Amino acid sequence: MDLKELTIEQLKEGFANAGYISEEETLITTYLSLKLGKPLLVTGPPGVGKTEIAKVLSKIFATQLIRLQCYEGLDETKALYEWDYKKQLLMIQSKKEENIFSQDYLLERPLLQALLAEQQVVLLIDEIDKADEEFEAFLFEMLSDFQVSIPELGTVTAKNIPIIILTSNNERELSDGLKRRCAFLYLDYPSVEKEIQIINSKVPQAGQQLSREIASAVGKIRSQLELKKKPSISETIDWTRSLLLLNADRLETQIIDQTLNIIFKDEEDKKTFQRELGSEKLYQALNE
User: What is the pTM of this model?
Assistant: First the structure.
């Protein structure tokens, strides 16, 4: 699909074909960021489909997804480039007169790969809030001008401007400079009705009754309990598949207790559920 000719109807169809259940705000904001040529900053709690947007766009445009996973201490040598010291040393030993600080001696990392790609790619800068503020500032040139500066080479400009998606779990406040360069989208946990749609899309064999009970149960767990990690959409899907593997067609107390380790990824969260809600109360709430 050609980005220049892209319509919002085509984008909506592309999301649907990829099985991504999106609301109008998500579609319109993504569409506008694409047409304006601006990076898209997607924030929200973990597991609500932020990273998936980049994956869906790579499918829609049938192009490569390049992913930079951020972490504390990430610097430009891991994100942009490194020099191939072994190759440089061999050239020095051969005593050939050649510039060993040319592009031929670069080891491309995700950012440089995206800039030098022969066709437009999707660049996912995942969990930018985990990186240091210094690295965030380093990205400004990339996000605004789609270029980077390499001391030995000068400015490297994108051959084809990449589609850039940044995600953040809001672990720290991002700078105004980064926000200003991006279109902004916030994703929250889905409503019960939307989560039913997601389950139906990902696990159609679950059926309407089980899908509704699972979506309602997860919604109550998220809203009624103070947890370190609330169940994500992917855990909802895993729970649904687990129940089907155990031949369950309803959510009952015994099957809830047997599958708690699929919903909760922290022992204290599981104890909080057992202490403050429990399978019996959850079952009763689903059948009121």
Answer: 0.89
